[in-house]
Specification:
CATH architecture: 3-Layer(aba) Sandwich
Strand order of the largest sheet: 6-5-4-7-8-11-10
Oligomer: single chain
Strand content: 25-35%
Largest sheet: 7 strands, mixed
CATH class: Alpha Beta
Bound molecules: zinc ion
Number of helices: 10
Mean pLDDT: 90
Helix content: 25-40%
Shape: globular
Order of helices and strands: EEEHHEHEHEEHEHEHEHHHE
Low-confidence stretches: none
Distance between the termini: 39 Å
Structural class: alpha/beta
Number of strands: 11
Number of domains: 1
Radius of gyration: 18 Å
CATH topology: Rossmann fold
């Protein structure tokens, strides 16, 4: 049976390897999954697993959104600051930016932003979204693809490691295109299959996170996806500060670790383990 690519819908795909149910470097259960590769757009992806009944209740544990360790909070502070600067740099009048954060979790990023931002969030997890009201953020609980925003449009849309969780990325990007004001900007981060960690770590790649991640893109596949979603201007950057130990965990079963570990900061700086894509409307 031909398996169609989740990203570009091509039938030019093949099965590449099997993966266990992993979250980062933690094995969660004995469930196994077949990973496919699209020869057309170079996306690695899972078949229609999200259509299984109980997919969400089985693989999204109630504590999936919790991250309260001290180290996590420090890292969050650093990454949020850099992301905020990136957004403010784009606008001439950074004091009146309306921002929509898709998959906003418990509103961590939105509540970090200064109060002169007009803040909106979408979150599918009801438990997480209920905790946000205290911050004075306008929150929509539900799926981004079916949420009705009325006539509201946004200067900025953000999705931090969310797109790879969504079953139909093209549909979501098309919707974002309609939600952005002219001159607006979309910023989103994703894993990157064109990285040292994926090339040599394969099924141990830190950001596989199957089956919650439904696909792993690269620059080529994202460029094609953006083009078919109506965007023509974008750029890629490598947020080396995102997940500082990802490459370390990805290479833990590879011989390459004997070369990489002693010079880890250098390799981490040079290998684009994740991508930050900036898209201009
Ligand atoms: Zn494809």
């Amino acid at each position: 049976m031909t398996i169609k690519c989740r990203s570009c819908n091509s039938s030019n795909t093949n099965c590449v390897f099997n993966s266990k149910n992993i979250h980062g470097h933690h094995y969660v259960s004995a469930d196994k999954f077949t990973i496919y590769f699209c020869r057309h757009c170079h996306t690695y992806f899972l078949d229609n697993i999200e259509k299984q009944t109980k997919y969400y209740s089985r693989y999204y544990q109630p504590n999936y959104y919790q991250s309260n360790s001290f180290l996590t909070k420090i890292l969050m502070y650093i990454t949020f600051t850099l992301k905020k600067i990136r957004i403010q740099k784009h606008f001439k009048k950074p004091s009146s930016i309306s921002i929509l954060d898709i998959g906003c979790g418990q509103g961590e990023f939105l509540s970090f932003l200064p109060n002169n931002f007009k803040k909106y969030g979408v979150e599918i997890n009801k438990t997480a979204s209920k905790k946000i009201s205290a911050y004075g953020i306008k929150i929509f609980t539900g799926d981004i693809n079916t949420t009705n925003f009325g006539s509201t449009k946004f200067d900025c849309v953000t999705m931090w490691h969310v797109l790879e969780h969504l079953p139909r990325p093209q549909l979501t990007l098309k919707k974002i295109n309609r939600l952005l004001k002219p001159g607006g900007v979309l910023l989103f981060s994703t894993p990157n299959s064109q990285s040292l960690g994926f090339k040599y770590g394969q099924k141990h790649y830190f950001h596989l996170d199957f089956p919650r991640h439904l696909f792993i893109p690269c620059q080529k596949s994202l460029a094609m996806l953006l083009k078919t979603s109506g965007f023509s201007k974008y750029k890629f950057s490598y947020p080396f500060y995102d997940f500082p130990l990802d490459l370390f965990w990805s290479l833990r079963h590879s011989l390459l670790k004997y070369l990489v570990y002693p010079f880890y900061p250098l390799f981490k700086l040079l290998s684009p383990e994740t991508l930050l894509t900036t898209v201009y409307k």
